[in-house]
Amino acid sequence: MRTRWLVVAVAVATLVSGCGGAATDQSGTKEAPTIALFLPESKTTRYEAFDRPLFEAKVKALCAECKLLYSNADQDAAKQQQQVEAAMAQGADVLVLDAVDASAVASLVNQAKQKRIPVIAYDRLISGISYEYYVSFNNVRVGEMQGQALLDALNKAGTVDKGKIVMINGAPTDPSSADYKTGAHKVLDGKVQIGREFDTPDWSPDKAQQEMEQSITALGRDNIVGVLSANDGMAGGAIAAMKRAGYQTLPPITGQDAELAAVQRILTGEQYMTIYLNIRAEAEKAAELAVAAARGEKPAAATTVNNGTADIPSFLLDPIAVTADKIKDTIVKDGFYKASEICTDAVAAACTKAGIL
Questions:
Q1: Yes or no: domain 139-277+320-353 corresponds to CATH 3.30.2090.10
Q2: Sheet with 164-169: strands ordered across
């Protein structure tokens, strides 16, 4: 249990509570810190299945007395604004914010700065203002890995110059999406023909399915040789569109997040690869920083990322490209999923072939 801090004068108490630490009650005893986590949506399964529980568990392990506030914005920027303002009104000492619209939350961060509440940008880089920390992955590298995996698959199949690819990028309000796209274009430009490219609102699988249907109509079913999808949910939408269009053999398609359904699709050959993000490491690093900030500490960051206004102290984790032959030694080995979770009856034969069972 953290030692309870005592102050000897009201002036000192006011100074401490104004510097990002937990508030002090009238007896002069510092209250337990309150840490608020804000996630952007639930269509992508990682947030509720992994980010939230992993973050909360690490906070409790480091600070049993810490209070936790949690909100999911359901991809609604206005709703997230209300959630953040409500958390500050409830006395949050630290904000860990995965913004729905990372270019539109500077005013919220400014409110926090005025209250001397530290802000940690989680997964998505907030622009337009300075703040304490940014925790994410090397997002340009993610796009490069997706582009290279698709290019390798096309070269292996001998189809790189036999047709066009479709690029299904993420939400235009998410700066990470722009990084993924930048990375993918660095690899693919000049080496493949891009027949259609979309920025997909809300990272929506349903909208990705519509985009793929439009592409099939415009380009012709037999002229699409590959699909660069920025995440697994949208890959699922694109695959649904191709199945509906009568594809007997699906072209290679990329993904990200190692969603359970995507891992199973990779094993059965419907999806070519995913980017495995060690969300545990990301969530736990954010939790460590949040607890430290709540205690008035300022851990040194490994690097900085410029958000257009300031160089933000940052922790960037490495992504891992995973094809069927790498699932056992990455996703299963790390305990991200158990073999029993992946290898349902429909996937059992593919699991055996991949050495998972």
A1: no
A2: 193-199, 164-169, 224-229
Cα separation of 99 and 80, whole Å? 8
Residue with the two structure tokens 């700066």: 175
Separation CA 76–CA 101 (nearest Å): 9
In order of 103, 208, 264, 277, 323, the CA distances from 236 in angstroms are: 28, 8, 11, 18, 16
C-alpha 46: how far from chain center:
8
Torsion sign (Cα): 158, 160, 164, 165: positive
Under the banding of pLDDT at 50, 70 and 90, the label for residue 24 is low
Q: Is pTM, for the whole model, over 0.70?
A: yes
Interior CA angle at 75 toward 228 and 77, to 5°? 125
Residues 6+ positions from 248 with CB-CB distance below 8 Å: none
Per-residue pLDDT tens over the stretch 128-157: 999 999 999 999 999 999 999 999 999 999
**Chain Cα centroid distance, residue 213:** 26
CATH 3.40.50.2300 assigned to domain 10-138+278-317? The reply is: yes
SS3 196: strand
Strand order in the sheet with 311-317: 67-72, 34-39, 94-97, 119-122, 133-137, 311-317, 303-306
Q: Strand pairing of 133-137 and 311-317? A: parallel
Q: End-to-end CA distance of the chain: give it in Å, rounded.
A: 43
- Cβ-proximal residues to 199 (8 Å cutoff; 6+ apart), any chain: 169, 170, 171, 172, 177, 181
Q: Give the CA distances from residue 100 to residues 96, 131, 287, 295, in Å, rounded to whole numbers and listed in that order.
A: 13, 17, 20, 27
User: CA-to-CA distance for 135 and 314, rounded, in angstroms?
Assistant: 6
Query: Where does the pLDDT of residue 293 fall: very low under 50, low under 70, confident under 90, or very high at 90 and above?
Result: very high
Cα 20 from Cα 18, distance rounded (Å):
6
Q: Which residues of the chain are in CATH 3.40.50.2300 domains? A: 10-138+278-317, 139-277+320-353
8 A C-beta contact, residue 165 and residue 197: no
